[in-house]
Design a protein that fits this description.
The protein has 448 residues and is an alpha+beta fold. It is built from 11 helices and 6 strands. The chain has a single domain, classed as Outer membrane efflux proteins (OEP) (Up-down Bundle). The radius of gyration is 38 Å and the shape is elongated.
Length: 448
């Protein structure tokens, strides 16, 4: 019996040594190799900054913004005079026969001039084009902001998943230690003849099952780290991971802001909503241009120029024209109808975006508040399960409980500890989704 008590007293230490040996078994690795394989640990802010620098989604959004600005510059250039210097060289040789004689003529001339052309009036075609291009820039700016917020959310959730999987791994490691302690004690009891041999088989099965769950938890950590690297936009072989930190426990006090308040904020701040509004403005400007082009169009231009060589001199003109697509196979009116339908589609897309935002905010809000309430209950359940396990272990030591009682108590404790971990990280991921849903997760203006 003293031997059994000694086993129970030092079981955790023995089991911890066993688990460590299992993880590092056969690891004849030099200290230098271990250091080289150690991943760089990042805080959440560092992981987000790295993602904003590395994610291809951000690079694509920035490129689209640059393209939109270039198109705006190109479109707005029609407001300015077009000044074009020219240098023309002409050499021409021709021959012909007349009355048996061959005549040859040659021309060798260089002409240097400069010309200017200014659009004066076009019934608003330029204005419509510039308005569409300007709205395109606004849409690209909002799209970049939206991409940043999406990347930040993905990294934040992936970061918390790494922390979650590590906490669950610790739960399983402790579970293995407890199962090993129970197995050692049961073997000692069996040798002493105080329990049946079949109890040893039950304890052995429980321990092996705990080892299986430990292997699953270890692999979940590796998978979560791969997911984090992917969310950051770095190679999955890069040795970077989340720092081993524990997020603060949330307050048990419910949020005093209703979901409607968060929905109002989202409708004011969401960048994807601003993008869709800008795209609607661009479609309306394009529709206006199509309507103008389908009717009588008056245009006026001023041109001027000066020839330097040969025969210096200047010229200037004012040109006004009236055109009307009398017959074009219905192309002009088809463009008007297509532009009008594009406006309708953008309006419906805007309504879909509003509905999606409303849903995302409400879902994240409800999940977060449910997780907040669940944490307190899970904490109480974990404490009760731990007390129950300790009582069952003590009773088993005294012969008042069976090995099945200990196994059941350990299983209940693992479930309670797992529920507590899940509740805490469910809260933090839901809060991250809520901040994204209201367009408020990219607060650091200094980020690149």
């Amino acid at each position: 019996m003293n031997r059994v008590r000694s086993i129970l007293r030092h079981g955790i230490t023995v089991a911890a040594t066993f688990v460590s040996g299992t993880i590092l078994c056969g690891a004849d690795v030099s200290a230098r190799e271990v250091i080289a394989q150690t991943p760089k640990e990042l805080t959440l802010e560092q992981a987000i900054d790295l993602a904003l620098d590395s994610q291809p989604l951000i690079a694509i959004a920035r490129s689209q913004l640059s393209s939109s600005k270039a198109r705006l510059t190109e479109t707005a250039s029609t407001y300015y005079p077009q000044l074009t210097p020219t240098l023309e060289y002409l050499y021409q040789r021709s021959s012909y026969r007349t009355g048996g004689l061959t005549s040859v003529s040659e021309t060798d001339r260089t002409e240097t001039a400069i010309g200017l052309r200014q659009k004066v009036f076009d019934m608003g075609l330029r204005e419509a084009s510039v308005d569409a291009a300007r709205s395109g820039v606004k849409a690209s700016e909002a799209s970049l902001s939206n991409s940043r917020q999406s990347v930040i959310l993905n990294v934040t959730v992936a970061f918390y998943e790494v922390l979650r999987s590590r906490e669950l791994l610790r739960v399983q490691q402790t579970s293995v230690e407890r199962a090993r302690t129970t197995l050692d004690a049961t073997k000692a009891y069996a040798e002493a003849g105080t329990v049946r041999r079949i109890d040893t088989l039950q304890a052995e099965s429980d321990y092996r099952n705990a080892m299986v769950q430990l292997g699953v938890a270890q692999n979940n950590v590796r998978l979560a780290e791969v997911g984090l690297r992917n969310a950051m936009g770095v190679s999955t072989s890069d040795r970077v991971t989340a720092a081993d930190v524990t997020p603060a426990r949330p307050s048990s006090t419910p949020d005093d802001h209703p979901a409607s308040e968060y929905i109002r904020r989202a409708m004011e701040a969401r960048p994807d909503l601003k993008r869709d509004l800008a795209l609607l403005d661009a479609d309306r400007a394009s529709a206006r241009r199509a309507r103008i082009s389908a009717g009588p169009v008056i245009e006026a231009d001023i041109t001027g120029g000066y020839r330097f060589d040969p025969d210096p001199g200047d010229n200037r003109s004012f040109i006004a024209s009236l055109s009307f697509p009398l017959f074009d196979g219905g192309a002009a009116q088809a463009r008007v109808r297509a532009a009008r339908e594009s406006v309708k589609q953008s309006e419906q897309q805007l309504e879909i975006a509003r509905q999606d935002i409303h849903l995302a905010v409400e879902e994240a809000y409800l999940i977060r508040e449910e997780a907040r309430l669940r944490i307190a209950a899970a904490q109480s359940a974990s404490e009760a399960a731990k007390a129950n396990y300790e009582a069952a272990s003590a009773g088993y030591q005294e012969g008042a409980q069976t090995v099945l009682d200990v196994i059941t108590a350990r299983t209940q404790l693992v479930t309670a500890e797992t529920n507590l971990v899940q509740s805490v990280y469910d809260y933090h991921t839901a809060d991250a989704r809520l901040q994204r849903a209201i367009g408020a997760n990219d607060r650091a203006n200094g980020r690149k």
